């Protein structure tokens, strides 16, 4: 029996990197998070925001990159993707 399309992926691992104030609010600079296949950026951000009000506040003001490309809320997370959480930066 031949299976077409290869094995079905039920879970993907996302590398999350927190920068500046996001790292302070998250209590870490980086982590690996398993999420169900089909998870979108906004769903992951909502999950992260549930960790506490400080992180939720930073995430609400942050920009996000998926593999160094600007991300949109509905973007689906793919296996091995890196999510960068970039809070607003001050200075010049």
TrEMBL record:
Short name of one Pfam family: ThiS
Domain of life: Bacteria
Matching Gene3D superfamilies: 3.10.20.30
Name of the featured protein: ThiamineS protein
């Amino acid at each position: 029996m031949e299976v077409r399309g290869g094995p079905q992926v039920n879970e993907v691992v996302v590398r999350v990197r927190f920068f500046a104030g996001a790292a302070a609010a998250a209590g870490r600079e980086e982590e690996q998070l398993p999420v169900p296949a089909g998870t979108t950026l906004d769903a992951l951000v909502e999950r992260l925001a549930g960790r506490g009000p400080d992180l939720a506040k930073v995430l609400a003001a942050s920009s996000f990159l998926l593999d160094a490309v600007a991300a949109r809320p509905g973007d689906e997370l793919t296996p091995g993707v890196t999510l960068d959480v970039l809070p607003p930066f001050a200075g010049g």
